[in-house]
Amino acid sequence: MKAAFVKGRNRVCIEDVDVPKVRGNDVLVRMRSCGLCGSDLEKVYGNYMMYSKRLGHEPAGTVIELGTSVQGFKKRDRVFIHHHVSCNACHYCWHGDFTMCELYQKSNIEPCGFSEQILVPETNTTRGGLVRLPDNLSFDQASLIEPLACCIRGISKCSLQKGDDVVVLGAGPVGVMLANLAKLNGAGRVAVADNNRFRLNFAEKHFDLDILNVSAESNLVKAVGDTTHQRGADLTIVATGNAKALFQSLDLTRKGGDILMFGIPTKAGIIPCDMGKLYSKELSVIPSYAASEIEINQAIRILSLRRINLNSLITHRFGLECIGEAIECAHNAKDAMKVVISSP
To answer: Residue 344: CA atoms inside 13 Å, Cβ hemisphere, count?
Structure first.
């Protein structure tokens, strides 16, 4: 079978690899759709904060083989695969910090999400890492489950109240997801800021979001202040790995407000920080990394019930053999939002 791997900076190759052997509680899934994530791009372009050659962690597909001990699944089941699972029995899990669990960091699928066939190991199948899809979710829609789940976890960590003003820095796929979740949770005015004109227009047209053009707006802080009675945003969401955005969030957020650090920072990313401003304004900087099975199932329900319609987010589809072109399309983002890799 064919699978995609990082083979050095800016280089991705499709290789022929052996189909993984299925044992015990393992399940083999034929990949049908898998979203291309920002972390995949960072791995390819050499800026990812953790070393990894695996590409693709948003896969959905069809069960084609089961281990002899598997219960609850059968061949041809339509499923979503979560690549990481927690043990639910360690100090971190007892405190609800599931993504900090040692098992969560180690567990994974084989060989990766951008593969014609994916082995879901016993570790994952027995801990909620394989979920049957509702009939009304397509495989493409299912490829949005994991990023939406990460956004759900991020929003849940903030003290968002009804009517709050929210500013999202970054109008990419997760920025739009976070903005829509903020609205779903009762936020008042929600604005997204970016210097990518295509993505701003997309957010405004398809999701009725207020937009702030960073390149055209000479003073983003003033623009936010003018719409919040000079208070600043109750919640500023940094949905980009650009360190300047995190630095600017200190000025965009009101006294006592929250800053959600959601975008993946680049490797060894460092920003100068005015600690006096952080202290005197009593700002809460809240990092959010990944998602647990709790948010995965919440995301499936939100998508299935159409609480948020994200179908339009998928602007490009590529076959696995064109993954290099897909990565370039997503990286340049000239006319792209969510890029999905599909396999028949």
So the answer is: 1
Reduced to 3 DSSP states, what percent helix, strand and coil does the chain have, rounded to the nearest 5?
35, 25, 45
CB 5 within 8 A of CB 15: yes
Beta strand residue intervals within the chain, DSSP E: 2-6, 12-16, 27-35, 59-66, 78-81, 117-120, 130-132, 166-169, 190-194, 210-213, 233-238, 253-261, 284-287, 314-319, 338-342
Query: For residue range 256-276, what is the model confidence (pLDDT) as tens digits?
Result: 999 999 998 887 778 888 899
What are the distances in angstroms from CA 115 to CA 29, 112, 327?
10, 6, 15
pTM (predicted TM-score):
0.97
* Domain final residue pick, 265, 287, 309: 287
Contact 326, 316 (CB under 8 A): yes
Using one digit for the tens of pLDDT, what is the confidence trace for 9-38?
788 999 999 999 999 999 999 999 999 999
Q: Are strands 210-213 and 284-287 parallel, antiparallel or unpaired?
A: unpaired
Query: For the chain, what is the domain count?
Result: 2
- N-term to C-term CA, the chain: 13
Least confident span in 195-209, 216-230, 235-249, 289-303? 216-230
The reply to whether 279 and 325 lie within a common domain is no
**Distance between CA atoms of residues 261 and 220, nearest Å:** 18
Residue ranges making up the domain that contains 107:
2-149+290-342
CB atoms within 10 A of CB 272: 6
By the 8 A CB rule, do 261 and 286 touch? yes
